[in-house]
Design goal:
Elements: H1 8-13, H2 55-67, E1 72-76, H3 79-87, E2 95-99, H4 104-117, E3 120-124, E4 139-145, H5 157-167, E5 170-174, H6 179-182, E6 192-196, E7 210-214, H7 217-230, H8 236-246, H9 249-268, E8 273-277, E9 284-289, H10 295-301, E10 306-307, E11 317-319, H11 331-336, E12 343-347, H12 353-365
Parallel strand pairs: 2-3, 2-4, 4-5, 5-6, 10-11
Antiparallel strand pairs: 1-7, 6-7, 8-9, 9-12, 11-12
The structure holds pyridoxal-5'-phosphate.
């Protein structure tokens, strides 16, 4: 092998095919054994007990560490347990500044951590204020989700890393939406990267998983201790399923993005749509339908897009953040920053873009209101009313 570092696409396709495995398996073997034999006192082959380490999980953890250019990876039982693992680096009394437009489940966990464990949180909107204005004496961390969910605002990670360095803060980045293919936060100065691998990395809407990558060995040791102590580790079969999904990530991401761009153009020109949010990359598009009353009939009229809560899989999904992903964010809070009751979020799948656009078009067409007096005949152009 040459010493030129392999490209991300190659690393992904080859996950698990670089082990000195006695039988030469191409697909990573699934090791289900919980305990491992001790050959004599103090003599192990490297594995002891499944919570501590597992050969299948190790392949996955090494792969994500390499892809994110970090020191060490940790496979967790969910994206939320990945967030929790990262938060094991803080203690009661610490203050953390987090992106305001945040995954609803992370917001819910932070509320819990502040009520039960005396962690303090402030929420930051990069478009509205400077992060430095929120930093206090006890600020220890900066938690950033970029692009944000569901409003797709990008945060300048380089700038965030400079601020983190200046104030001695731990910079944690949720990289679920962009994946290491579109963004590598550690290269930009982040300390910890987390993923809900349930989304793009798994990619097939059939798995719950989380990943954490640590940038330096000291921090990796602390994370390992908590991971092993708490035990929210990813089971071997799920590790294998995630490895299998990751092999096609590069191809899937290309198609997600191509389709998302076409859908963005279609929605941007549609008379029944007000705002469209797309961060120039990736497969996620959010938009505001012109009237709140149209949300329910629109969702009902869709035939290809499934009204469901996740993202990043091969099948296109549509989400209503107000009652689904962001139901735990108080209405007043979310509407104050633009997450209205008219907002829909689309996870664009890998189907043919023409079929997806046709589905959206036919659903919009069913919203056209009948002209006054000719009830039930339809056909008249609706006036978008706010
Ligand atoms: C889904 C999601 C999570 C939580 O992950 P789970 O795998 O559902 O536990 C965290 N962050 C983001 C951005 C997500 O989309």
């Amino acid at each position: 092998m040459s010493s030129v570092p392999l490209k991300k696409e190659t690393l992904l396709a080859q996950v698990g095919n670089d082990r000195d495995e006695p039988n030469g398996a191409i697909s990573t073997p699934i090791y289900l054994s919980a305990p491992y034999r001790h050959h004599e006192i103090g003599l192990l082959k490297g594995y002891d007990y499944i919570r501590t380490s597992n050969p299948t999980r190790e392949v996955l953890e090494n792969a994500i560490a390499k892809l994110e250019k970090g020191d060490r990876g940790f496979a967790c039982s969910s994206g939320m347990s990945a967030v929790q693992l990262a938060f094991s680096l803080f203690k009661s009394g610490d203050h953390i500044v987090a992106s305001r437009d945040l995954y609803g489940g992370s917001y819910r966990l932070f509320e819990w951590l502040s009520q039960q464990y005396q962690l303090e949180f402030s929420y930051w909107d990069p478009e509205e204020n400077e992060v430095e204005g929120l930093i206090r004496k006890n600020t220890k961390g900066l938690f950033i989700e970029t692009p944000t969910n569901p409003l797709m605002t990008e945060t300048d990670l380089k700038l965030a890393a400079e601020t983190a360095k200046k104030y001695g803060l731990l910079l944690i980045v949720d990289n679920t939406f962009y994946t290491p293919l579109l963004q590598r936060p550690i290269e930009l100065g982040a300390d910890v990267v987390i993923h809900s691998a349930t989304k793009y990395l798994g990619g097939h809407n059939d798995l719950l998983a989380g990943l954490v990558v640590s940038a330096n060995p000291e921090q990796s040791d602390r994370l390992f201790d908590f991971h092993n102590s708490c035990g929210a580790v990813l089971p071997p079969f799920d590790c294998w399923l995630l490895i299998r999904g990751m092999k096609t990530l590069a191809l899937r991401m290309e198609r997600h993005e191509k389709n998302a761009k076409e859908i963005y153009s279609f929605l941007s020109g549609h008379p029944l749509v007000d705002q469209v949010y797309y961060p120039r990359k990736g497969g996620m598009v959010s938009f505001e339908i012109a009237r709140e009353a149209w949300v329910a009939p629109f969702l009902k009229a869709l035939k290809l897009f499934t009204f469901a809560e996740s993202l990043g899989g091969v099948e296109s999904l549509i989400t209503y953040p107000a009652t689904q992903t962001h139901a735990d964010v108080p209405e007043e809070t979310r509407t104050s920053y633009g997450l209205s009751n008219r907002l829909l979020r689309v996870s664009v799948g890998i189907e043919h873009a023409d079929d997806l656009i046709e589905d959206l078009a036919q659903a919009f067409n069913q919203l056209k209101e009948p002209a006054p007096g000719i009830k039930g005949q339809g056909g008249a152009e609706a006036e978008p009313v706010r």
